[in-house]
Amino acid sequence: MLILTVKTILGFTVFISSFLGLLANLIVLRPVYKFAKSPEKSTIYVISLFNILNDIIQLLLSTFYLAPCIIFETYIFGDKINSPIPVFLGACCMFSWYIGNVSQIVMATNRFAVICYRNYTFFTRRNTTIIFILTIIGAAAKSFIIQYVFPCCEFIFDHHVLSYNYVVKEGITNYSDLSDIPVNALSTIVAFVCYTSIIFTIRKSTKTVSLTMTAQTQRQRRHKEYIYAMQFFSISLFYTFAWVFLRTFPMLFGGENLEWFVLIAFSITVNSSANAFIYLISNKEIIRMISRSRYFVFGGTSSTIHHSDTIPQSSEKRSKIIAVTH
């Protein structure tokens, strides 16, 4: 019989939040896929498509494995912490995480190049697809090495700490963690530098045209600045929280107050859900396509991209500020 405790409540909370994020990603998947295929659309949709597919992997693991593990206080597919299936699922999680590492960098540098320097030549559909194919291969190789080659330490879903953990072996260096820290730090630093530069560019552009605007137009532009900043911020904030919490909480709390460790799981869930919710809240193209679709991601009456929904690339290239979606 399931006993209602703080741990089970947190487990159900992880399940609900992850499921909602998964649902949001599934809703936006179809329109983003259609826009990614359209030559008239920005290549940002190609990047977003890979991000959403990767987020779905992470949220599936969180919804249907991590949350049940916490609720029922078991590894489900094995009695031991390093049983084969839990280790394999940990490898899947790391595979998704490593793709996310590169996605953070690609997304940030793409927006930086387009908004700050109006450079549209590098992130073509072909180049972007090649980058992500190489990323998938590299992520698969690194996750295999982490879980099955290094002597220490496997990455697992650990219900004891309500999130994720390394299977630390006494007297053996955690090579897995040491190899992850530089990649995580690089992704955060690149994102911070790029998004900070973008915000300054937007503010500078706003000041140069503010003298010719009415008060209402200026208020609208200031509101857009805020939206841009929040989008930039949300892309990398919870990603950074997740990997920083994973490494600092064991030092801060040790074996006590383990409930705080659930923040690691929530950070990854929010990071994996942010892309979809930003689309559902602020991207008018996505909202219009979803509103025309009777069955959302599973089918619908709108199977084509209407001319009124498209933004020719030539028009995009003339724009000083590109609406940023992730």
UniProtKB/TrEMBL annotation:
Chain ranges passing through the membrane: 12-32, 44-67, 87-108, 129-150, 181-202, 226-246, 258-282
Localization terms from the record: Membrane
Pfam entry (one): 7TM_GPCR_Srx
Gene3D superfamilies tied to this protein: Rhodopsin 7-helix transmembrane proteins
GO MF, one annotated term: G protein-coupled receptor activity
Span of the signal peptide: none
Keywords: Membrane, Transmembrane, Transmembrane helix
Keyword Cell membrane appears in the UniProt entry: no
Principal location: membrane
InterPro entries documented for this protein: 7TM_GPCR_serpentine_rcpt_Srx, GPCR_Rhodpsn
Domain named 7TM GPCR serpentine receptor class x (Srx): residues: 15-283
PROSITE patterns: G_PROTEIN_RECEP_F1_1
Gene Ontology cellular component annotations, sorted alphabetically: membrane
Name of the molecule in the record: 7TM GPCR serpentine receptor class x (Srx) domain-containing protein
Organism: Caenorhabditis angaria
